[in-house]
Design goal:
51% helix; alpha+beta; 4-stranded antiparallel β-sheet; 11 strands; 5-stranded mixed β-sheet; 337 residues
Length: 337
């Protein structure tokens, strides 16, 4: 009984080993089949060859020309670098030679100084000092000559002892100063005529809200004025009320000719029309107002100085180029000095 059992156990172990070997062989066969199938698919897939761009003969020649130019440029750069290298070597050798010569000269000079006597050394030092002082003296002489040639441009500012400006309330005489010529402006005379003329033209405002009229000329000037309605707020017992009235809105004095009057030099001379107009008034109660254009400010200072010496107060009213003398109820008064 025992021997039979032992034989059966041994045969059963051999069968298990055979099963394992069979399984391994099967797995290997499957792997070989898979590898063969993938290799076949890879061989079957077409190889993609990139398309080659077509190049014309003209493009090819252009590329060859560009390549030749680049090659020439590279060769030229190589030649330049080589020449610069040789130049640097030559300059370096030249510098070394000069440095050696300077060092040798300094050594010889020091040797000669040491061999000189004390008196000779003092003379040499005095000579060096003399040369340095001579150079300094020459610089000082040139500087003095430059300073003598640089004469300062001195401008004298005349001072008039009238620091306080006052608004004009008394009699005012008007003049116009343009292009160096001064002319009398009949301001008061034209205003009087305007007042009389306006009374006869008021009826026109029934048809028009504003009217423009011109009178003159008087002494070479016309007066153009504008009449119209204005609204003012008036306080009454029942409260503020709007009041409408007729008023002169604006007036302008227009010269008949642009170049009128006397030159400033003639006007300030004895017997001139300008001085005749001035002397008709009293200095203490009269202010001379000069309407000045931008090109005549210097002439205005001359007139102001002369009037100040005569005892007259003077007021300047600047005018922009191209504008007329004008006035309005809301304008400003002249300021005299």
């Amino acid at each position: 009984m025992s021997k039979r059992q032992t034989k059966e156990i041994g045969i059963g172990g051999l069968d298990s080993f055979q099963d394992i070997v069979a399984n391994l062989v099967g797995i290997l066969i499957i792997l070989v089949i898979v590898v063969m199938m993938r290799a076949r698919d890879a061989l079957v897939e077409p190889v993609v060859v990139p398309e080659v761009a077509q190049v014309s003969q003209e493009q090819l020649r252009d590329a060859e020309v560009i390549a030749e130019r680049v090659e020439d440029s590279v060769i030229e750069l190589d030649d330049t670098v080589e020449r610069q290298t040789l130049e640097l070597k030559y300059r370096k050798s030249e510098r070394d030679r000069i440095l050696r010569a300077i060092t040798l000269s300094e050594s010889e000079l020091q040797t000669q100084k040491e061999t000189l006597s004390d008196e000779s050394q003092s003379s040499l030092e005095l000579t060096s000092q003399y040369e340095a002082m001579s150079q300094e003296l020459g610089q000082l002489i040139r500087s003095r000559q430059v300073l003598q040639q640089m004469k300062p441009d001195v401008h004298v500012i005349e001072h008039m002892p009238t620091p306080m400006a006052k608004t004009v309330f008394g009699k005012e005489m008007h003049f116009r100063l343009n292009h160096g010529r001064v002319s009398y402006v009949p301001f008061d005379e034209l205003v009087d005529r305007m007042q009389r003329d306006a009374q006869s033209k008021v009826h026109k405002l029934h048809q028009h809200p504003r009217i423009i009229e011109t009178i003159g000329p008087v002494s070479g000037y016309r007066l153009r004025y504008e009449l119209g309605y204005t609204n003012d707020v008036v306080k009454t017992r029942s409260g503020p009320r709007l009041q409408q009235k007729i008023e002169m809105l604006k007036l302008e004095l227009i010269p008949v000719e642009n170049a009128m009057g006397e030159s400033v030099t003639t006007a300030l001379a004895d017997g001139s029309q300008f001085l005749q107009y001035i002397k008709r008034t009293v200095p203490e109660t009269t202010t001379v107002t000069v309407w000045v254009y931008p090109d005549s400010f210097d002439d205005f200072r001359r007139i102001k100085t002369t009037l100040f010496g005569m005892g007259y107060a003077c007021a300047g009213r600047p005018l922009p180029e191209g504008l007329y003398i004008s006035a309005s109820p809301h304008g400003t008064k002249s300021v005299r000095q």
